[in-house]
Automatic annotation (TrEMBL):
Pfam families: Response_reg. It comes from the Bacteria. InterPro entries: Bact_response_regulator, CheY-like_superfamily, Sig_transdc_resp-reg_receiver. SUPFAM superfamilies: CheY-like. This is Response regulatory domain-containing protein. The modification 4-aspartylphosphate is found at residue 53. The lineage of its organism: Bacteria, Candidatus Doudnaibacteriota. Gene3D superfamilies: 3.40.50.2300. Keywords: Phosphoprotein. GO terms for biological process: phosphorelay signal transduction system. PROSITE patterns: RESPONSE_REGULATORY (PS50110). It comes from Candidatus Doudnabacteria bacterium RIFCSPLOWO2_02_FULL_48_13. Residues 6-123 form the Response regulatory domain.
């Protein structure tokens, strides 16, 4: 039996975190951080992929992404930004996230959890 891949979900919205956990747990082991500092700590366990919200308490997603990509231990972990920043600045935010090293940028309101699972499967084939 192959070992299940691990995903770190950094999401401060409890309901959304539970929803994604439910969907993702069918294929992956999921660990959840509810703020930036906790996400930074849990990333040290070297998950196979990080799902990262942008608007977080204690440290925003862009700061976290920068920190992940600078750190030897986490720089090669694929990061998918998952946010509700669907504002008029979405193009700028997406460019910044990709420039900082994110693999992808998904707006939660435009993607059902099942679609997000399919996106993850591109980076983590099971």
């Amino acid at each position: 039996m192959t070992k299940r891949k691990k995903i770190l979900l950094i999401e401060d919205d409890q309901d959304l975190a539970e929803l994604y956990d439910e969907v993702l747990s069918a294929k992956f082991d999921v660990e959840i951080a509810h703020d930036g500092k906790e996400g930074q700590e849990l990333a040290k366990k070297k998950p196979d992929l990080i799902l990262l919200d942008i608007l977080l308490p204690s440290m925003n997603g862009f700061e976290l992404l920068k920190a992940f990509k600078k750190d030897q231990d986490t720089k090669n972990i694929p990061v998918i930004v998952l946010t509700n920043l669907g504002s008029k600045h979405v193009d700028d935010d997406k460019k910044l996230a990709l420039l900082l090293g994110a693999e992808d940028y998904l707006v939660k309101t435009y993607h059902q959890p099942q679609e997000i699972l399919e996106k993850i499967s591109v980076y983590l084939p099971t």
